[in-house]
Every structure is written in structure tokens, then in C-alpha cells.
Amino acid sequence: MTERILTFQALNPDQAKQIEALGAEVVPFEKMAETSGITAIFGWSRKHGLNVLQDPHNAVKWIQTVSAGVDYLPLDYIKNHGIKLSNAVGVYSPAIAESTIGYLLYFLRGFNDAVKNQAGHFWQPPERNDLALLASQKVVIYGTGSIGQDIAELLNGFGNYPYGVNRSGRAVAGFAGTVAQKDDAGLIKDADVIINAMPSTPETVDYFNEAYFNQLNGVRIFVNVGRGTSVDEQALVNALRNKHVLNAALDVFNTEPLPKDSALWELSNVLITPHQTGFAVENTAPIFDFLADNLKSLQETGELRRNVVDPARGY
Amino acid sequence: MTERILTFQALNPDQAKQIEALGAEVVPFEKMAETSGITAIFGWSRKHGLNVLQDPHNAVKWIQTVSAGVDYLPLDYIKNHGIKLSNAVGVYSPAIAESTIGYLLYFLRGFNDAVKNQAGHFWQPPERNDLALLASQKVVIYGTGSIGQDIAELLNGFGNYPYGVNRSGRAVAGFAGTVAQKDDAGLIKDADVIINAMPSTPETVDYFNEAYFNQLNGVRIFVNVGRGTSVDEQALVNALRNKHVLNAALDVFNTEPLPKDSALWELSNVLITPHQTGFAVENTAPIFDFLADNLKSLQETGELRRNVVDPARGY
């Protein structure tokens, strides 16, 4: 049968032509209301997505997300209706890894003070010993999947071999060593940098809480490029105020957009980026490739072949 | 004879002990007025340095700077009086290279907008295609000495092989290619990033002038970690306003401190750091090593052996 793909994520004309050349139809988001018989969705809409699935005139059997995480989807509905699901995991990792190195250099190389001084036309050099090299920092990365591995690989280019924390403590290339989550206490007590790159799962909710931060003795930088749910934000604010954590770079939050009255906005030792760390113009092509490859696979075998997600597990 | 070393750059107690163990005397800056017979200087003071050289009670024969460049010294006096000169070239290169990568990621990964939005509590994500990967940028580095090479090495870790510009066009490891200065026009016309890492010499003064910037067609980032004298600042301001250059990260300036009324402070597409790019706590040890090694050499052979500078050439 001819697949009819609703594109919440717009395709450019060349991409649309490629999909049509595979014998499928492309339904732009704007034509959603006047189209029935939708069998697949590219991207997602929090407002309209579930309606499209539930509309009896459609027969959606496959969703290809443009995101790595899928926790914002109606996973129970997807599971119960046997809808196939594939994500874009891996695509964002190079961009997230580059951003993460940027966050670290922003604080280590004195940019955070420089931008504040620039606003007041203040020429105020730091003390020579206030700045430090990324090469020398002890970095601990939570999560050793594609994001953690890509961060580690870039760190290696600075001569830095980080430590990893994962479920089992299994060894991973690019890391000086890894431990299981339950064994992280010894690793973090003299860490200079802690990076969260874990996905959202029940075990990671509020992992970075008051008890966690109280173990730290002046960690220079805490980075969250994983999920907002992993961090108890009030505990982090307290840690930033009482110097258990000296600086933080945060891309994800409990509530997004971050509420106007969040204390995080005002802390001078925090860099906030609005859930953009994985953005890059270079991502467009590989995300489209997932769509095209999975479409071909579905046509040929009835199954997806790339980045298949189990909706019961969420990854 | 016993060397008597005036330390404009303070030594810590352990370092002072090591120098004394070599049979030399350490004269802290604070005791300058009450001390005569100074034979060597570590560091420099713009206010007091020349007085120390000219004081007939002293007999300075060696200056060990803590900087890489020596253009702020009275080079004619030093040359005419046969004073030996050594610098700290190379020490700062790793820190400058790390800072340079930080400057590039600051703009490429959208931090420049993020910090401005954070000040107003604005959650304003960029368009997905507004951000880009460092891996994909065409980078051109002016100067392929220790700074340029260290920048190239870090870029290589991002999968980026930059182009170099030097006097002769000689090939240098870590670069995709190099050209001589006179042949740079073809290289820069489609560059994404241009980095100045050249020392201050007569040939580099105002190298980046109006004619230069007019060749550029929207270079994404211009970085100056070389010398302020290499850039015609008014021409750069014009280039930033008329979009020949989209963003700039500047650590060095024609006049330092940068005057309060410089237009550069106010440009929203400029990051200003106050001549700090080479600072790092990790530099202390290797700079001291130059002092100790050259002291030993002077005692043994009458000549310096590390980082000897010809005051007539300035490097």
C-alpha cells in the first residue's frame, strides 16, 4: 500500500521528492485537516499528534521522531495500538558534545565573567591562576551512550580522559574508567566537572538531589545536557549558593520554558541555554535519512530497521 | 658571581628555595628600593623596569619574561647594552588554543544569544539551522607557530583540519594546507572562521584592515588571539556592522585596557576578553622552569639555553 506520511517536521522540496520517488505521499502539516488515510508521521505535535492517531479516518502504523528522547509521546497509546516507533537517537550527539565542550570552556576560560564585565565596559582581567585548562580537569560523565561517548571523544582531543558512570559499570572506549551508578561516591568526591548525559527513565528522576550535591566539595562545573527531570532544581540552586557547585551550564529543565520566576535565571554562576544544545544545521540530512531508510524497510519487509524504539521501555 | 634576581613576577616559597639552592639570590619586588647589585629580572614592570636597568648600582645582564611577546620591553636599550633576553613562548599556547576553541563554540553553539536572553529571563531557542558544528567549519589560522599548531591540534580532535597562513607557505602538521601571506586571498573568500595568531612584527601591523575585511563575504567568526596591532579596529567595527564579519572574539587590542568609549564594547556580536586568553594555573610550573633552566645555563656556560630572544628582531 502507499504510505501517506504527515510531516509535522517540514521536508524541503528535494527531500519531499525523494520520499515521493519511493512511492509514498507527503502530507504537509498545513494540509492535515483536509487529508485522511494518514499511515505515518514524521516529527510530532503536542497539540495535534494524538488527535491524528485517534482519528478513525487515519491508520497510523509508524511514527519517526526527529528527537532522540520520546518521553513526550503518548507511549501507552502507541504500545496498545501496535504503532511502530523510531527515533533520531545519535544524530544530536555530535552537536550536544560540541556544546558541552563549549560550556566547560565558557567557565574554565573566564568567559562568564568577561561577558558580564563587557556589558559594563569593564576591563577586568582575572587572576592568572583563576583560569584553568580543560586538559587538567577530572571530568565525570553520567551516561555512556552516544552522547557520553561523543563528549568523551572530544575530551580525548584535549588530552582529557574522563570517567563514566553507567548502569552496570561496564567499560567504554574513550573513558579512563567507569563505575556503576551505585558506586559513584568515590568518583565524584574530587571531581572538577560533572556532566549529566543520561536519558529520562524512572531511575534517573531526581538523581541529582540534595543528598547528591551535599557529597560534592566545590565541583567547578555541573552540566545538564540529559533531561531536566534528573535534577532537583531547588537542590541545585542551594548547591550553587552554598558552593557545593561553583558553576552550572543547563540546557534542560523540570519545566520548559523555564518559568520567568525561576531562581536559576538570576544566578551569576549559571549559563542557561533553552534546550538547544543539540541543534545544528548538519543534523537535517541524517534525520531525513532515518525517515527514508525506515520507509524503504517498511515497504520491503514490513519492519523498521533504524533506531527502533520499544514504547514500553521508552528507548 | 652570585646572580641577584629581581622578581617582578612573584615566586612562591618553594620556587624561591629552588632558586636559592642554585646559589642565586631572590629579591622580591617589594625590596627593590633597598637593594643594589641586581643582575637579572624575572617578569617585568612597565613602571619600574627601565629604571632598574638604568640604575648605576645594578648590573642587569639577563631578563626572563613571563610573557611570550616582548614588544612592551625597551628593546633598543636591551640590545645596545647587550642584555640577554629570554621569553616564555610556548607556555601559553595550550591555554590560548583552549580559549580559541571556546570562542568558536560560544558563537557556533548559540551561547552569545543565550547569555543576552538569560539577562532578561527570555526563553528564546534559536532556529535549529541557526547553530552549526565546529567540525564542519572552514577555519583559516594566521600564524603556524606554537599557538597556531596547538589550535590546529585541538581542531583536529573535532574532526576539523584547518588551513594555515604563514610567511613562506611551508607545510605544517595538523593543517589541511598552508599558503604564504601574499597568497591568502583564495583561501579566505569562503572561510567560515579566521583566527589571528601572529606575533607582532612590522609586517603584521594593520594586516587586518579595511581592504582585508572587504574581501570577506560574511565570515562567521573572526578571532584575535595574536596582537592588537594586527587589526585596524575601526575597519573591524565597520566589517562587523556591514556583515563582512558576523561575529568576533577579541582578546587583544590597539590600546589596553580597551578605552571605555570603544565601539567594540557595545557590539552585540563581539565577545571581549581582557588579554587573558593565555592565563592558566597550569602555566606557573613551566614558566618557572625557564627561569631555573636559564639560570643554571648562565652559571655553567655564560649563555641562556631556552627561549632566547634576539632584541633586534623581537622574537
UniProtKB/TrEMBL annotation, chains A, B:
It comes from the Bacteria. GO terms for molecular function: NAD binding; oxidoreductase activity, acting on the CH-OH group of donors, NAD or NADP as acceptor. Pfam families: 2-Hacid_dh_C. Keywords: NAD, Oxidoreductase. InterPro entries: D-isomer_DH_NAD-bd (IPR006140), NAD(P)-bd_dom_sf (IPR036291). Residues 102-276 form the D-isomer specific 2-hydroxyacid dehydrogenase NAD-binding domain. The keyword NAD applies. Gene3D superfamilies: NAD(P)-binding Rossmann-like Domain. Coiled coil: none annotated. This is Phosphoglycerate dehydrogenase. It comes from Levilactobacillus koreensis. The lineage of its organism: Bacteria, Bacillati, Bacillota, Bacilli, Lactobacillales.
